[in-house]
Amino acid sequence: MAGGGFVAQGHVGNYNGGVTAFVVITCIVAAMGGLLFGYDIGISGGVTSMDDFLMKFFPAVYHRMTDGSARDKNQYCKYDNHLLTLFTSSLYLAALVASFFASEITRVFGRKVSMFLGGLSFLIGAMLNGIAMNIIVLIIGRILLGVGVGFANQSVPVYLSEMAPAKIRGALNIGFQVAITIGILIANFVNYGTAEIKGGWGWRISLALAGVPALFMTIGSIFLPDTPNSIIERGHHEEAKRMLQKIRGTEDVKAELGDLIAASEAAKKVQQPWRNMFLPRYRPQLVICSLIPFFQQITGINVIMFYAPVLFKTLGFGDKASLMSAAITGVVNVLGTFVSVATVDKFGRKALFIEGGVQMIICQIAVGGMIGYKFGLTGEGSFSKGEANFLVFLICAYVAAFSWSWGPLGWLVPSEVCPLEVRSPGQAINVSVNMFFTFIIAQGFLSMLCHIKFGLFFFFGGFVILMTIFVFFFLPETKNVPIEEMNRLMKAHWFWGKYIPDEVASGDKYTA
Ligand code: BGC
Questions:
Q1: SS in 3 state form for 120-171?
Q2: What pLDDT score does 511 carry?
Q3: How much is the pLDDT for 75?
């Protein structure tokens, strides 16, 4: 079987029915979850660079920025404050913990219950942030936002994949990333506008507006139908059939329904999905689901997403120029993601990973070199206008590369390499590793900038070299491969093949 090609067999991907308006609308509502996540990523950097916000909650940072002391001349260190980074990063720690609870709730009570709880928690968090009078309320609000993100990120991608007809599953999965990037962009523009507000309360608007996508998702989730898979999982086969007929727009859903029931039966037979995950035959999945989210974060993308305005200010840009440059990278991020939607099933995952990786490496070396040349080790210096523009260009080229490679694929690939029997632990590992390293980067970046200075860009660039090599040698191409065929794909791989017993790769019971 090993050399047998990976053509879709039977009716995989060819079920009856089409793309109905109903499925599109439900998916748009569900994708609001990505908007929550994205808005949050984009808002914190802008807010933490606003003077009024710093004066109120982080006076020490504010004074260091403005008092002109010797230390202040060192541009690299002026924002290095652990409490300030805790503001950004506490959310991801909360999301990491919440995602474990969310995975149980999603399984037992259905996807929409998780979306509802996530939206609600996010809504309360946004309100607390908007009215916060002290740092404790601010951090509690952040933690509630984190719980919201944990629930949304666990349930929304699963919801989208389960609702989507197989033939557009890849594109719909990336729809989640499209929503993330739009959320980041909206946040960038909101910050740009609220920074103008004179009364010192602009940051409150920025933080409170997170309640808008949260409200959409909370109310939307009440009206959303649950997925057929989830309904079957809870034993209601007739109801699942009616739902499938509605979302596919046809009476004849026998084939798909049969497969869903078979898949659900097969998954139920696996008593210990977590223990299974550590069996040698799932080694490729274990490695891919752990390394891909780690690699996604160690590209350094969130240095730009969280701290672009702070970074630009560190490099001597003015307030407005900093926020504007951050908004420009936000636009590039959205547009680039559409490149991925259009090409991922044509050119494949590996081609995008490798092109994106090489482009990122070049940009990181150039950015690190430029900053090193102008600011040296002391951190004293400035850019001319032309140099500043070139720097923004390099950062945009880096963001573009990420947006069509590691951004969407970092979520897509781990979710598609796992056979059904280990899909849920695989996804849980993916989400939690991602959140953990998002936390580490958010918490560590300003200190790292202060200590390793421009070398930080070489540090991330070095990792991108490693991960590009990993993709080249160790990542099997999953383009157009049905999920049910993953064991065979691994069996045929030069390295992973030895972990997969022959009977697993050819056995029918694994191709439910
Ligand atoms: C990542 C985020 C990142 C975003 C940028 C997502 O795929 O998980 O950490 O901020 O892409 O667009």
A1: HHHHHHHHHHHHCCCHHHHHHHHHHHHHHHHHHHHHHHHHHHHHCCHHHHHH
A2: 37
A3: 67
Task: Name every residue whose Cβ is closer than 8 Å to that of residue 268 and which is 6 or more positions away in sequence.
Answer: none
pLDDT (tens digit per residue) in 371-407: 888 877 777 777 788 888 898 899 999 999 999 999 9
The pLDDT score that the predictor gives to residue 434 is 94
From the centroid of its chain, how far is CA 161? 16
From the list 333, 27, 400, the residue with the least C-alpha distance to 181 is 333
Q: Could you name the CATH architecture of 21-226+270-504?
A: Up-down Bundle (1.20)
Protein residue whose Cα sits closest to atom 8 of ligand 1: 407
How does pLDDT run across 121-138, given as a tens digit for each residue?
999 999 999 999 998 999
| Whole-structure pTM value | 0.85
223 vs 243: CA distance, rounded Å: 14
Which tokens sit at 331?
A: 């636009």
- 3-class SS at 216? helix
Distance CA 469, CA 463 (A): 10
Atom of ligand 1 nearest to the CA of 410: 7
11 — pLDDT class (breaks 50, 70, 90): very low
More confident of the two residues 321 and 2: 321
Helix (H) or strand (E) segment spanning residue 375: helix 349-375
Largest alpha-carbon pair distance within the chain? Answer: 75
Which residue minimizes the CA distance to atom 10 of ligand 1?
302
Give the distance (Å) from ligand 1 centre to CA of residue 226.
27
User: How far does the centroid of ligand 1 lie from the alpha carbon of residue 215, in Å?
Assistant: 22
Torsion of CA 472, 478, 483, 488, to 10 degrees: -60
DSSP 8-state class, residue 6? -
For residues 246-271, one letter each, b for 16 or more C-beta atoms within 10 angstroms of the residue's C-beta and e for the rest, the string is bbbbeeebeebbebbbebbebbeeee
> What are the DSSP calls for 288-308, one per residue?
HHHHHHHHHHHT-HHHHHHHH
Nearest Cα residue to atom 11 of ligand 1: 407
Whether the CB-CB separation of 165 and 156 falls below 8 Å is answered with no
Sequence-distant (6+) residues with CB within 8 A of 6 are: 480, 481, 482, 485, 488, 489
Name residues contacting ligand 1 (CB within 6 A): 41, 177, 180-181, 184, 296, 301-302, 305, 333, 407, 410-411, 434, 438
Predicted local confidence at residue 10, as pLDDT: 35
Position 147 pLDDT exceeds 50: yes
* H helices present in 234-316, as ranges: 237-248, 254-269, 273-277, 283-298, 301-314
